[in-house]
Write a structure and sequence with these properties.
It is built from 1 helix and 7 strands, in the order βββαββββ. It is mainly beta and 105 residues long. It has a 4-stranded antiparallel beta sheet. It has a 3-stranded antiparallel beta sheet with strand order 1-2-3, with no helix packed on it. A hairpin with a 4-residue loop joins strand 4 and strand 5.
């Protein structure tokens, strides 16, 4: 197992993040107008407390990438889905979007 989530605050409120799986790394920027870090921490706290599925969002202005972390039979899987415009129509968590990456963590 390797580090899966990277998040580094940049200047002026933006951040650079990444989801890292073996043999695959997806770079994700996070806008200053959305609290992506809080989204990630809240989701991971829920996952650590036993919630079977959690989701968080990287908001890229106007696009967004939704990260879903699920647990089934003791295994964790992660999936990233991209939406071209977060505003219209606003995607709801769990909508399919365009699959960017998925794998076991």
């Amino acid at each position: 197992m390797a580090r899966v989530i990277e998040y580094v605050l940049g200047e002026h409120g933006s951040a650079q993040g990444a989801i890292v799986l073996p043999h695959r790394r997806i770079e994700l920027d996070a806008s200053y107008i959305h609290d992506t870090f809080k989204n990630i921490v809240d989701a991971l706290i829920c996952a650590c407390k036993g919630q079977a599925a959690v989701e968080w969002i990287y908001f890229h202005e106007p696009a967004s990438t939704h990260v879903t972390l699920t647990r089934v039979a003791g295994r964790r899987a992660i999936a990233l889905r991209r939406f071209p415009d977060f505003r219209v129509p606003r995607p709801r968590l769990g909508n399919p979007g365009t699959l960017v990456m998925e794998g076991e963590v």
